[in-house]
Each structure stands twice: as structure tokens, then as C-alpha cells.
Design a protein that fits this description.
Layout lengths: L26 H13 L4 H8 L3 H10 L14 E4 L6 E4 L8 H7 L1
Antiparallel strand pairs: 1-2
Helix pairs in contact: 1-2
Length: 108
């Protein structure tokens, strides 16, 4: 059984312009607010909620621009965490701490 493929003759191709839509969000106006909230220690979820954005949209923006963490760490044994109670970002002194210092003080 012989399978033959016919090669299409090269016809003059016309380039079809790609449809591009304008961006839905003006990130030049939103970026300072995002940076300020991230500096205050808000998580991506909290930042998106305060600005009225979709969480996935904000995460994609942060990932695209390689904006990782807003809170710097001082020692190598510290871990970045998001509080399980209030959903704020904090730096934990150990890997087993899951509540921020404020919530830990409230529950103890």
C-alpha cells in the first residue's frame, strides 16, 4: 500500500492581519497600587480583592513581569507564608508556622 501526498503548489500567500484587541486593563495606572499593596504585605489574593481584579489576571501579570515576593527575608531559615486565617503575607520564622503573628496572638 503506497501512500502519496501531494504537495500543494506554492501559491502567493497573503498575510492575514492578526486580530488583536486592546488590553482590558491599563496596567500603567494599576501597577503603582499593586506595588504599594504588595509592599504592605498583602497577598496576591488580597491585592486582587482590594483592586477589584480577577486573581488569575493579577497572578499572570505578576508572573509575566517576574514580580515574586514583596517581603524580603533576613535569614535563610525564614519562609514566606500566607496566613491561613486572614490571608495576609508574612515571613515565618519556621516552616511549620501558618498563622501570622497577629492571628497567632489572637488565638493564644
Amino acid at each position: 500500500m503506497e501512500i502519496t501526498h501531494k504537495v500543494a503548489q506554492s501559491a502567493p500567500t497573503t498575510t492575514i492581519p492578526r486580530r488583536t484587541r486592546p488590553p482590558r486593563l491599563d496596567w500603567t495606572a494599576i501597577a503603582p497600587s499593586v506595588a504599594q499593596l504588595r509592599r504592605q504585605g498583602c497577598s496576591a489574593r488580597e491585592t486582587a480583592r482590594r483592586l477589584g481584579l480577577n486573581i488569575k489576571t493579577l497572578e499572570a501579570h505578576l508572573r509575566r513581569h517576574r514580580i515574586r515576593h514583596a517581603i524580603p527575608m533576613d535569614r535563610p531559615d525564614q519562609v514566606r507564608r500566607t496566613c491561613l486565617n486572614c490571608d495576609t503575607a508574612f515571613v515565618a520564622d519556621g516552616r511549620f508556622l501558618r498563622l501570622c503573628p497577629e492571628c497567632r496572638a489572637m488565638f493564644s
